[in-house]
Design a protein that fits this description.
It is found in: Nucleus. By secondary structure, this protein is mostly helical. The chain contains 14 helices and 13 strands. The protein has two domains: about 270 residues, Four Helix Bundle (Hemerythrin (Met), subunit A) (Up-down Bundle); about 90 residues, Herpes Virus-1, CATH 3.30.40.10.
């Protein structure tokens, strides 16, 4: 933020009275800047584009009901059979249509929907004993599934209540040992007389239907009940229309492009396992590499300037900032030892830890920058409000600052998730291309962050041009490395 927008906080020791703050563009040649200023080709498809709908619980139930009715009509089966078939095939009706009639019958028998044979003997009408509570009950008090294992109503009721309270719904089965015949909804509901239990069962059975569906996903937002629907599951961003949570449609975790679902899962598990060994990289203070003054990072930008000696350096690698404008961001690329395969196991282990800490440090640094830039956004909002109150423009006049801050967060979030991708990417030409594009993106993000924090020192057009360049770099990387 510019000097008048920075009065509520300090930025890594910057001198507010110094009018000679370094412009990051000074470290780029004219040829590079002319190339960067090329407009984004809007004719190229957006790799993040994804068609989806956000459904309420009622809309999702209606959608499921239509599919059940469609299968009932096509295969001439009842509702219970249709539900079992759909859940076992991810609700892919086309796959079930390709099954023969005998295949369908065998599957229904396997799932306990159809009986394997007609019971040879009937229970006595006068009464029998329940093998669970060992009490003799009248015949009308004894109930059984297709397997003809009879139990009393009270035992069925208690069994279902206990399991439902434990979150089990679609997997409710016969109580007999080694019997896996499933209990249909109408059978279960006939024993649920407590309203709270019936509501839980309805909630859990609906949850199981959604989880088994190939193109429906629950929003992972806290206490959110919205359901995302897409024609084709992909590792792309969904923004919930209710709680505004962003998540990956494929795995329902935090959106993680360009890293694919399996890789980010491995990365997060590794970070959790190795968190103690990486604690030191979360420190918020470092010494200036030139005069050794202690500097605290309280802004998102990694382009630092020492307040004592005015030295410009990179917070991540502590290198001279002007050298970040050469071929590409060297501090984003890990330099592996070429002869590591010939080293002993102990040396290999140390090198593996060094590599992990390198990528984890940059991952954590960008996560920290996102938090600090959120604080900067709050300061921007306050300052804009002050300017509007002083008749120094309207909210619309200053909207570009908020747009710039939003784009910065979007780009930095994407940059953060490039590091797990790079960590697991094998060495070779493709990794070199990725690191080159990653470095270009990182350089433009830091330029954008620098300009946002000093917005009044840059013209509106200059800031908007930097926004376009940063987004172009992000789009270029995603077009080449977006997960499939």
């Amino acid at each position: 933020m510019a000097e008048s927008l920075e009065e509520d906080y300090t930025y890594s020791g910057d001198d507010d009275d110094d009018d000679d703050d370094a412009d990051p563009n000074d470290y780029y040649g004219d040829e590079c800047m002319e190339e960067d200023q090329e407009p984004v080709d809007e004719r190229e498809p957006d790799p993040e584009y994804f068609e989806y709908k956000c459904l309420t619980v009622s809309e999702a139930k209606t959608f499921l009901q239509r599919q059940v009715e469609e299968l009932c009509s096509k295969l001439k089966v009842d509702k219970r059979s249709a539900l079992v078939l759909l859940m076992s095939h991810g609700w892919l009706i086309a796959e079930l249509e390709n099954r023969t009639e005998q295949d369908i019958s065998n599957l229904l028998i396997e799932k306990g929907v159809l009986a394997r044979h007609v019971p040879q003997a009937k229970r006595s009408v006068c009464g029998t004993s329940c093998s669970v509570c060992l009490q003799r009950k009248p015949r009308d008090e004894m109930k059984a599934l297709l397997c003809s294992h009879f139990f009393c109503k009270d035992c069925w009721c208690k069994q279902f209540e206990v399991l439902i309270n434990n979150g089990i719904a679609s997997d409710l089965q016969c109580m007999a040992i080694d019997c896996h015949i499933g209990a249909p909804e109408d059978f279960v509901l006939s024993f649920l007389h407590v309203e709270t239990i019936r509501k839980k069962y309805d909630k859990f059975i609906f949850r199981d239907y959604i989880k088994s569906h190939y193109n429906l996903r629950f929003c992972p937002g806290t206490d959110c009940t919205m359901v995302a629907q897409a024609d084709k599951p992909q590792s792309k961003r969904v923004d919930c229309s209710k709680c505004k949570t962003s998540f990956c449609f494929n795995c329902c975790g935090a959106y993680h492009a360009p890293t694919d679902c399996e890789t980010v899962k491995k990365w997060l598990m590794k970070c959790a396992d190795d968190s103690e060994t990486a604690n030191y990289i979360s420190a918020n203070t470092k010494d200036c590499p030139k005069c050794h003054a202690c500097i605290e990072k309280n802004g998102g930008c990694n382009h630092m300037q020492c307040s004592r000696c005015k030295h410009d350096f990179c917070w991540v690698c502590m290198g001279d900032w002007k050298f970040h404008g050469t071929e590409y961001y060297e501090c984003s690329r890990y330099k592996e030892k070429p002869d590591i395969v010939n080293e002993c196991a102990q040396v290999k282990a140390r090198e593996a830890l060094k590599k992990y800490l390198f990528y984890h440090g940059r991952w954590e640094n960008h996560a920290r920058s996102l938090e600090l830039e959120a604080v900067t956004l709050g300061n921007i909002n306050k300052r804009i409000q002050e300017k509007v109150m002083k008749n120094e423009g309207t909210w619309i006049d200053w909207q570009y600052l908020l747009d710039a801050a939003a784009l910065l967060a979007k780009c930095r979030y994407s940059l953060q998730y490039t590091y797990p991708y790079a960590y697991y990417l094998e060495s070779g030409p493709r990794k070199k291309l990725f690191e080159y594009q990653q470095a270009q993106l990182e350089a433009e993000i830091e330029n954008l962050s620098w300009k946002i924090e000093r917005a009044e020192k840059y013209q509106r057009g200059d800031l908007q041009n930097q926004m376009n360049v940063a987004e172009k770099r992000r789009q270029t990387l995603f077009k080449d490395f977006f997960p499939t």
